[in-house]
Write a structure and sequence with these properties.
This protein is of the alpha+beta class and 477 residues long. The chain has a domain of 319 residues: Outer membrane efflux proteins (OEP), CATH 1.20.1600.10. The chain is built from ten helices and ten strands. β3 and β4 form a beta hairpin. α7 runs antiparallel to α9. The two termini are 52 Å apart.
């Protein structure tokens, strides 16, 4: 049983470890998975999402401001000593429990369309926030692609370094036997041995570059660094400049769909509507309101008739010297407290009011707000223009870089082919003892350097193509 329990614990531990690896993206990552994971974990993107959520709340609240308000009030208390009876308004000298209850409502009829313009301004602000959120995602996407390609480039260079070492190892092993037999000059053997050591150092550097690139990618994805993390290679594809339009056409496309440009344009429109909203405060404000109120008093009473009779009073009339008494009706009443519900109903009263507020002088506060709003609009306009200018410059720069990278990649492929043939000949001649180790190493180093440059140029070309596809609104994977 102990053995079974131990095996079960090991199984559960391994399962949680696997789930943990999957949870932080330590399986083989594709470019699309890396981008999605980075967007999910990035703090700046999450902050932009919160800004968008805040803008949504502001917009919804501005719409609700158009609705009438409704407020209720309850005032309950006790008076001691001499006070006014809230029921009869007479002075009394006793403890009185009282209550006042009411509700009121007001609706704005006109304020120079300030609220309507404010709603449009906030709506445009919300749309701008949504575009800024997308812009944050787009910028992060480009950075992730760059970091992803750096990992692939470093891994390819490491692979090439290992292949170089294998070639040098074979030659070094062959020369070691010949050197032991005295069939070659010792310098040839030791030249190759030194070359092998140099290339092994290059492998160590390449390994460090791979781990550094993985670290940069992990930090960009906001996940813990793991040495075991792998990235999937990108499918081979032919990159042709013929698939791209001119920089001018790409710029026209980017203006219509680039999130940064859209956000800047919406901010300008929002600032313009805000000017109209502030100007509306210069006009009179017309509002309509009403209220309903009632009250209660603990000393409120009501008299109830018990009976009525005719009795002689102390008054009389004199008729020819004779006095005759005056009779009058005399009623008997009983007093009892008025019920709470009856008081509320009996004391109920309503008010209706129509108000007009005319701004005459308030220290030029509103006019100053208008000027500030106009300055904000001008600032937004400049930012929009600056954003478009930067976009155009970035597209032109990316297009030129793509052309240059394409030409460089083509030339490096030809160079690798030429140096490859040169090395093949040099290796054959070196094996036959026709040339020295110096000539052999020159040919080998030329080929190795050309291959390294080709790898760097390949991923630089892919990056340039991805960036231009991004501006042209094409898929990045």
């Amino acid at each position: 049983m102990r053995r079974s329990f131990f095996i079960a614990v090991l199984f559960v531990t391994a399962l949680f470890a696997c789930l943990s690896l999957i949870g932080i993206g330590q399986t083989r990552l594709t470019l699309q998975q890396a981008i999605e994971l980075g967007i999910k974990n990035n703090i700046d993107v999450q902050q932009s999402a919160l800004v968008t959520e805040k803008s949504s709340v502001v917009w919804r609240q501005s719409k609700l401001s158009m609705l009438p308000n409704l407020n209720a009030a309850v005032n309950q208390g006790t008076n001691y000593g001499k006070s006014i009876d809230p029921f009869t308004n007479a002075f009394i000298d006793q403890k009185v429990n009282y209550g006042n209850y009411g509700a009121s409502s007001n609706i704005l009829l006109f304020n120079g369309f300030s609220l309507q313009s404010g709603i449009r301004s906030n709506r445009l602000g919300l749309e701008a926030s949504e575009m800024e959120l997308q812009e944050a995602k787009d910028n992060l996407t480009i950075n992730i692609i760059l970091a992803y390609l750096q990992v692939l480039s470093a891994e390819d260079i490491l692979k090439q370094s290992r292949e170089q070492v294998e070639v040098t190892k074979k030659q070094t092993g062959r020369l070691a036997l010949l050197n032991d037999e005295g069939a070659i000059a010792p310098s040839d053997y030791y030249d190759l041995k030194g070359q092998l050591a140099s290339e092994q150092v290059s492998i160590a550097d390449s390994k460090a570059n791979v781990e550094t690139a993985k670290l940069s990618l992990s930090q960009l994805l906001n996940i813990p660094y793991q040495k075991e993390m792998e990235v999937a290679a990108l499918p081979d594809e032919d990159i042709s400049l013929e698939t791209f339009s001119s920089p001018e056409e790409i710029y026209r496309i980017a203006q219509r769909q680039f999130a940064g440009v859209k956000a800047a344009g919406l901010r300008t429109q929002s600032a313009e509507k805000n000017i109209q909203s502030v100007k509306g405060k210069l006009y009179p404000t017309l509002f309509f309101g009403g209220s309903v109120n009632t009250n209660y008093s603990s000393v409120a009473t009501i008299n109830e008739l018990l009976h009525s009779s005719v009795v002689a009073s102390a008054d009389y009339v004199d008729i020819n010297g004779s006095r005759y008494p005056v009779y009058k009706n005399q009623s008997a009443y009983t007093s009892h407290k008025l019920k709470f519900g009856n008081q509320l109903n009996n004391n109920l009263f309503y008010t209706l009011n129509l108000g007009l507020s005319i701004p005459i002088f308030n220290g030029s506060n509103v006019r100053s707000q208008v000027k500030l709003a106009e300055i904000d609009w001008k600032s937004a306009k400049l930012k929009e223009y600056h954003t478009k200018t930067l976009l155009q410059q970035a597209i032109e720069r990316s297009y030129v870089n793509l052309v240059s990278s394409s030409d460089k990649y083509r030339l490096l492929k030809e160079q690798v082919s030429a140096f490859g043939e040169s090395f093949r000949i040099a290796e054959a001649r070196f094996n036959e003892g026709v040339i020295t180790s110096v000539d052999y190493l020159v040919a080998k180093n030329n080929l190795d350097r050309a291959k390294s440059n080709l790898i760097i140029s390949k991923y630089d070309l892919i990056l340039r193509e991805k960036i231009l596809n991004f501006y042209a609104g094409r898929s990045l994977w």
